[in-house]
Amino acid sequence: MTETTDTPSNHDKIDSADGGIGVSVLRILKLLARPELAKWRPVMAIAVLLTLGASVLEVVSPLVLGHAINQAAPEPGEPAAFAAAAMWLAIGIGVRFLAAAMPQMRDYFFAPVSQDAQRLASVDAFGHAQLLSLNFHQTRRTGALNRVIERGAGAIDYLIRFLAFNIGPTFIRLFLASIALGIAYDYRLALIAIGTIIIYVVATVIITEWRVRQRRRMNEADTHFRAMAVDILTNFETVKAFAAERRETGRFDTAMGTYNDRYVETVRSMYILNAVQALVMNFGLLAVMVLSAWNVIGGKMQIGDLTAVMLMLLSLYAPLNILGWAWREIKQGAVDLEKLFGLLSMKADISDAPDAVDIVSPRGEVAFENVAFSHEGRAVGVSDVSFHLAPGRKIAFVGTSGAGKSTLLKLLFRFYDVDSGRVLVDGKDVRTLTQESLRKTLGLVPQDVVLFNDTIRYNIGYARPDASEAELRDAARRAQLLEFIDSLPDGWDTRVGERGLKLSGGEKQRVGIARVILSDPAILVLDEATSALDSATEAAVQDALEEAAEGRTTLMVAHRLSTVKSADEILVLEAGRVIERGNHASLLAKDGKYADMWDRQAKNADLALVAE
Q1: What pTM was computed for the model?
Q2: Per residue in 101-127, pLDDT tens?
Q3: Does domain 18-177+326-349 fall into CATH 1.20.1560.10?
């Protein structure tokens, strides 16, 4: 079996970590030694014994078959022993069958161990990723993160199978075969076999390292070519608008030509590798067979011994045919595993303090004391923001984009920690509270409610999976969604599609509101919950929000000032600072920034500039 043509692949990079094979083996051994896999210890032992047994039988089988041939073709002057030859042939074939069957038995037994180890590593990585901070997830592509976990888990199985069950046994067989050749026939045969394999391995590794560099260049060309093709087809309207069809076809031709050149280089190097491997292997086989023939002529060996030597070397060389491919894939598997453990070693920016406490019976009091915070890489965040919000009261944050409104909400949720000052809930600094209890105290309705690709029941019930049917219906009714759900053919079992795309904007918002109502938070947080809706839909959703806010402490960020008129206090932010504060009427009376914003929106909506 020779190496086959490479398939292009594009490995998304989550970090620049490189993996060593030795380190990866140690990581896998530590994983297999974990208590969760203790139930598989006997199976692991059986797998090791079967692997060693198969290696021994691979060496014994040619010796038995050679002895059988010697019985059928004895030396001159000795009678042929058909019965003995047939018996030894049967034993030899039986041993050969067992040598082939035992690895299958090993894989049969080891399959659940491998899957359990992959599951354990995947769950660890997935759970750890869930605990990492918001900043981590905002700077990583979701698909790339998922692929890191998938590839890392798959590398565990791959490395076990190739290192422990393929490459490892091959060198065990080499060791045993060398002893057998030296003791049973001629020590020079053992030296030739060992020398051939050393030359074979060294040549394979050198050429494969060269091929890896070529493959990377091919993958880069492939990625560029395919990404450009998708980009051109996606923007076909722009291409047509600028009459650029020929130009884009030319770019496609150039990119594909570059990829084809890289592909040809890679394929040709594969042929070189296969040719060098075949050359080394056959020269080694030739040297062994010539020496064996010389020994047969000299009376030191019989014809069956010659056959045994050939069969032994052929069985020894066969697994090495894939060494080049296996070496490259093992190295990639080591890198993938290293990235998985790199993910597991990452520390969350936000973590619970060792003495963090839960919020018990939350009242809903919120206070910011001289809070300052700036995002990484940005000069403006929020600076010196202070306010106190009593339980059951409502506060609104308004201002232009980038003024820091949503940042204040993220600080309340402790998605980020303040640079200075304090954020308090019920009089306790949020850094002294457990994140789980803090966020269960808060209920968020964002600008764009993102839903799971599941049923309406699942999405509303996500807040409280143990909620009763009556509680679900009450939450939907209060969100003004019950009539809509009951009118659907599948009712509560209607699937909402990817990210809720089968629902309209207003329906998605009301599902989000129903979900928050069901969670029954002490503090309601509205982050521009109606800004993406048209006026008619906004009015319906606003009624649902008023219902949800009834009796709760409410913090809201709003772009449309008509939605914040009822707030007990309104904070106007600019460049992260509070420049005005007061209720709707007092802010209009100041004739400042808020009044100017209201005037602009009122004129656009053809409303009278009045304080209501």
Answers
A1: 0.63
A2: 988 898 888 888 888 888 888 888 787
A3: yes
